[in-house]
Amino acid sequence: MFQLGIIGGMGPLATVEFVRRIINYTDANCDQEHIDICVLNVPKIPDRTEAIIHYGISPVKAINKCFVDMVTLGVKSVAIPCNTAHYFVNEFSYPSEINFINLIEETGIFLNSLRLTKKICVLGTQAVAYSKIFNINIKQGVLCYPNDVEQKVLSEIIIKIKSGIKHDDLMNEYNDMLRLIYNRVNGCIFLIACTEISGFLEVTSKYYKCLDTMDILAISSIIKCGYKLNRKNLQEFYLETDSGCFLEYY
């Protein structure tokens, strides 16, 4: 019996980072106090952006197969650390005994609880920018997106990360893009909405106010599994906003 199941492989490196954050953010004093986690790392799941933008093969069948496998393995709750995959959430099929932790819904609940005076700029794949999947659950007028030129640069960075290029080697390119966006919208909070670019968070948060949907999903997963948060480790990544610390919500 596993308390949490992770449908991963979208991409593989992002899956590893998601597991690392769950472990890092869980209040535990020994191995036995951590969450029992089952990870299905399935990189063969069809590309989500290709399916949305270019009408490629849908990932739904492969993802739903993973839900079936999770039931067989006795998993209670399931999380998918891929923002773009949640475009297909209404096509997901899983039995009632599975508690699906919806990244888009959890992000919406969290952001709607904050009293922010600045726009939130969503940094995601081309498909996230095109579909604007976060707009459904977040108050109107709060979100903005990169323009076409900025999004092209961001999409190329994501592709490079998936191809194996290290985050450190892309840092200057990434920071230049953030600077352009920040100046264009006259200041904003960045919402990292692609698990490939979550690897930039530690550096990004030194210069900008930012949030990462991977963090929100990790925190929600810990809480929904009945565990407490290691607030000391969380505090490293959360900056102060006009309404207080992001961490106060939890």
UniProtKB/TrEMBL annotation:
Provide any one GO MF term from the record: amino-acid racemase activity
The organism that produces this protein has a lineage beginning with: Bacteria, Bacillati, Bacillota, Bacilli, Bacillales
Coiled coil located at which positions? none
* Keyword tags: Isomerase
Q: Specify the species.
A: Paenibacillus selenitireducens
The entry's family comment says: Belongs to the aspartate/glutamate racemases family.
Protein name from the UniProt record: Aspartate racemase
